[in-house]
Amino acid sequence: MLTVKEVAAKASRLQTRYAARDQRMRDVLSVRQGDISKVYPAMFSEEYPKPLVANFVDVAARDLAEVMAPLPAFECSATNMVSDSARKTADTRTRIANYFVTSSDLQIQMYSGADWFNTYGMLPGIVEMDYETNNPRIRLLNPFGVYPEIDRFGRTISLTQIIASDAETMAAQFPEFADQIISRNSMTPGSPYLSVIRYHDKDQDLIFLPERNNLVLANTPNPVGKCLARVALRASLDGEARGQFDDVLAVQLARARFAVLQIQAAEKSIQAPIAIPQDVQELALGPDSIMRSANPQAIRRVPLELPAGVFTESGVLERELRLGARYPEVRSGNLDASIITGRGVQALQAGFDTQVRAAQAQFARLFGDLVSVCFEVDEKVFGSITKTIKGQEDGTPYSMKYIPSRDIKGEYGVDVRYGIMSGMDPNRAIIALLQMRSDKLVSRDYVRRE
Question: Which of 63, 163, 277, 391 has the CB geometry, 3.0–4.6 Å to 295, for a possible disulfide?
Answer without folding.
Answer: 277
